[in-house]
Design a protein that fits this description.
- The protein is an alpha/beta fold.
- It is built from ten helices and 15 strands.
- Helices cover 35% and strands 27% of the residues.
- It has a nine-stranded mixed sheet, covered by helices on one side.
Length: 331
Amino acid sequence: MVRAAVIGCGWIGGGAQSGTTQPYAHASVFKNIREIDLVAGCDTSAENLRRFGKNWGVNRLYSNVEEFLAHEQVELLSICTSDSSHENILRQVVEAGATRAIICEKPLATSAAEAHKAVELCASRGVSLYVNYQRRWEPSCLAIRQRVMTGQYGEVRAVHGYYVRGLVHNGVTWINLLRMLAGEVISVAALPGEIREMPDDPTLSAWLELENGASVVMRGMPRAAYSLFEMDILCSAGRVVLADSGRDIRCYRALDDADYAGFRHLGTDENRIEPSGPAHGLRSLVQEAVQNLVSSKVVISSGEEAVRDLEIAELIRRSAESQGRTIQLPL
């Protein structure tokens, strides 16, 4: 059995309801994989700890990281605390030798420099590092990547999409998915306007350029009455739209137009991609982590991806501070 623990037992780490399978909650996924034994939780909130212990049958509960490290050593650890604490807690855990693998909620850190240090520390100590960009493990997003990257819809020409709640908090998730599905970013330029919904983390819009010359517009939006995470990938011979946070996936191919001779239009691709949702993403990530632990394979690749995402976000912020100047990415 792989012994596992969660630091940060709130909504993402521990879920909010008792007796239900909550696909976004790390504890829920751990409890529903038979190779894992969830043994401990840690949170500064007494209420979060009480609910975590009751919901998931965990008795070893700690009110701070130092207490946790003094008593626990596990194979797999999730860090689900506030953004600004991720890198510090990761460093404490790795330096204490308390785990062999870490799943850290995004962002890995609040700066690319901090994230880089975290990746280097994990690599030097032989600790696997996974950043919870769930869509990187979702079957539906992997299917989209396969179609786009193999040219089934032609060459990527343009991408447009939306996100909410902070460039670092949620914007890096959009950037990560863009890089996964459409290609690497080589330059950025901030667009006018910013939204202040997260302390010290403005929601910014930006124009980005991909390696193949395709233009990208990522729009930061106010959360208002609903959340928003969407991406529209327009290719030379097709199109893919991820709407409603990926719950709605629409694929199109260039087809002969029945009404206008000699013209082609985007018609629905009959080879549908069924949305898989966050339940598959986090579960697949955890299963991969368990398999790598069993085979003693050390993985830090998603940590390196997280560094690049933060680098891009920081350049967007720098561009915004210079009235939208285009900045080339240091490759």
